[in-house]
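Weekly modeling sync, notes
Attendees: S.R. (lead), two postdocs, one rotation student

Agenda item 3: backlog of single-chain predictions. S.R. asked that every request posted to the team notebook include the full sequence so nobody has to chase files. The rotation student volunteered to paste the first one in as an example of the format we agreed on. Action items at the bottom.

Example entry:
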Amino acid sequence: MKKPLLFLSLGLMAGLLLSASITTPAHIQDNERPGPEHKFLAGMVGEFESHNSIWLTPGTKPMMAEGKSTSKMIMDGRFLFSHSQMPELKHESFAIVGYNRNRKVYTMFSIDNQGCEMDYFEGKRKGKGALVLKDPSGFVQVTMTPTKKGKSNTEIVILAGDEPYVLVSTDLVRTEVADEDD
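Predicted structure, as returned to the notebook:
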């Protein structure tokens, strides 16, 4: 019993040593590092006041809600982590936005306390402007538009149905620049 265990242990150690000495090809290493797309995301770092317009039904008057949002870069500048709150609606959400350099696409996961699902979106930038992300079914589109230094707008649009309609429009105004990386 001791010999097979010893050989198994030696085999595992040899495997670990071999895998540690294998070098990664240069193109893979380049895609592991943050690029200019991550610099764009870093421009969204900070603490913000949020002014939210919410349409529960198309064509109706929006419900207005104030809130706060904090965004920071995490994992050595690879991802933008955002935490948003609208206290009067008892709403809280988290989002992680990144750029997949292999697939050349922006990705976002989001969760909130209004449901039990994790939402996934992916998309691209329009030139040097808005970041347009859609869920895999094409039902929801999130557009993040930097407007002026320290200000931006995010819209969530429902694409299903007869005509697309804006569900949420959020204007963010930077109040303070947050730490870029933890």
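Discussion: group reviewed the output briefly. Helices lie at 2-21, 26-32, 36-42.
Action items: rotation student to repeat for the remaining queue; S.R. to check formatting next week.
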